[in-house]
Amino acid sequence: MQTPKLNVEDVAVHLIDDPHAPMRSDIDLDGIRELSESIRSLGLINPISVVPRGERFECVAGHRRLLAVRLLGAATIAAVVRELDDAGVVAVMATENLERSDVDPVDEALLIGRAIGEDESKIPELAKSINRSVAWVRDRLDLLGYPDELIAAIRAGRISLGVAKYIGKVTSEKIRDFFIKDASANGWTVLQAQVQFNLWESGVLDNIDNPPPPPADMPLPESARARAICARCGTLAVHPNLTSVFVHAECPPDEVVEAPAAAPTPSLEA
């Protein structure tokens, strides 16, 4: 099946508005200047896409190209005029931007949220239209419910989306704030976030009034380094200062002793 040919028109630049909800919240002015010089030398290779908004138009793909052409002072720009609903706008914007590695996941989430609104039945169709999984779309929607401090840390690149998924589940504001600060300062891995979340979920951290900050002279952890709040003293413990031991459920906590040398694993046939 052939892709239908798109009609390209010359649209007056002054009639084109910026995207209502741009995919990228940050604008690299130096990059726009470089793109502007490239267009001056080579011309506009790919047209932008716009949708009619009354007597004006909204740019839905090619925002950086539009900004560069404005910088050149051009009167018109080559554009494909499309008739799209909100879901269609999202699909076009996502197709152009999601393959870029530098797109902010918060920007992705805002755009996805705009398309879905309150109707979660749209998720499968939207996921298919942007060539993403339903889980990917839901992860972005979950991000919109995170506290402002966590969203800011994600946007700044201090906390990964995988780590944020665990921190965002913590309902204790005190513990969550500590997790955000510690993860930002020490570069938590997803494994570390999972360990800390499991400690909180099990109630180990409930009686800690003031979760201790990490030591000031602590080096950044390696990728697989384990860190947790000690269940006994409530202070931060860092591998190799952590020990995993097996105990009987009926043994009092103060009777935990050093584990003996490992014995041969019993045969399942014994």
How would you describe the overall organization of this protein?
- It is a single chain.
- The strands form 2 sheets. A 5-stranded mixed β-sheet has the order 1-5-3-4-2. It has a two-stranded antiparallel ribbon with strand order 6-7.
- Among the domains are: 1-83, Alpha-Beta Complex (Conserved hypothetical protein from pyrococcus furiosus pfu- 392566-001, ParB domain), CATH 3.90.1530; 172-253, no CATH class.
- The protein starts with 7 loop residues before the first strand and ends in a 32-residue tail after the last strand.
- α1 crosses α2 (63-72) and α8 packs parallel to α10.
- With 270 residues, the protein is α/β, with parallel strands linked by helices.
- The protein is 39% helix and 11% strand.
